[in-house]
Amino acid sequence: MQIACRSLSRFRLAALAAAGAALLGLAGCETPAPGNSFPEIGYSHLPQLSLAVGRIDIVQEYRPSAKPPHVEHMFPVRPAAAAERWARDRLKAAGGPGELRVVIVRAAVVEVPLKQSGGVRGAFTNEQAERYDGEMEMRLELTAPEASGTVSARAERRRTVPEDITLADREKVWFQLTEAMMNDLNESLERQVKKNFANWLR
Question: What is the mean pLDDT of the chain?
Answer without folding.
Answer: 85
